[in-house]
Structure formats: C-alpha cells, structure tokens
Design goal:
Blueprint: H1 3-23, H2 32-52, H3 63-92
Helix pairs in contact: 1-2, 1-3, 2-3
C-alpha cells in the first residue's frame, strides 16, 4: 500500500465513521480519531462482506457496499461509545 492508498483509507474512514456517528441517535463520548479508526475498520470489513455476498464492483458508487460499511460503522460507534461510557462511569464511581 502506498501513501495515496493510506490517505484514501483515512479519508474514506473519516467519511464512513462520520456517517455512522451521524446516523446513530444520541451523543457518543468518542473523539474524532476514534471515529476515523472505527470508520476505516467498518469500510474494510464492509467491503469484505460485500465481496463475499457477491456484490459487483461498478464504476460508480457501490450503494450496497456503502450500506454495509455505514451499518458496520453505526454498530462500531455504538460499541465503542458504550465501552467508553461504561469505563468512564466505573472511574467516577466511589469504591
């Protein structure tokens, strides 16, 4: 993977993560960098799932693949936000 591929992955991950975060109701206690990381992972896994189920690669926007990616980003943001909220709650609780 060259520098262009890495930059593209970061940009696409940021967009996918932002869409996932935007579509998830409520406030998520995670930062921008964590959102981008979740988006990158969701984009990679979503592409893999789309290839496994036989979604064809087109010259335009692959809407089904995008739906997989955004759906996984929503799930990922929800899981990370839940984990972070639980961890922050445990830190603040008196022992």
């Amino acid at each position: 993977m060259n520098i262009t591929g890495i930059i593209s992955a970061i940009i696409i991950g940021a967009i996918i993560g932002a869409l996932g975060r935007l579509l998830l109701p409520g406030r998520q206690p995670i930062g921008v960098i964590l959102t981008v990381i979740v988006g990158i992972i969701a984009a990679l896994i979503g592409t893999g799932i789309a290839q496994i189920v036989g979604v064809r690669t087109t010259s335009g926007i692959d809407w089904i693949e995008l739906a997989f990616q955004v759906g996984l980003a929503i799930l990922g943001v929800a899981l990370v936000a839940s984990f972070r909220a639980r961890r922050n709650h445990q830190r603040r609780a008196p022992r």
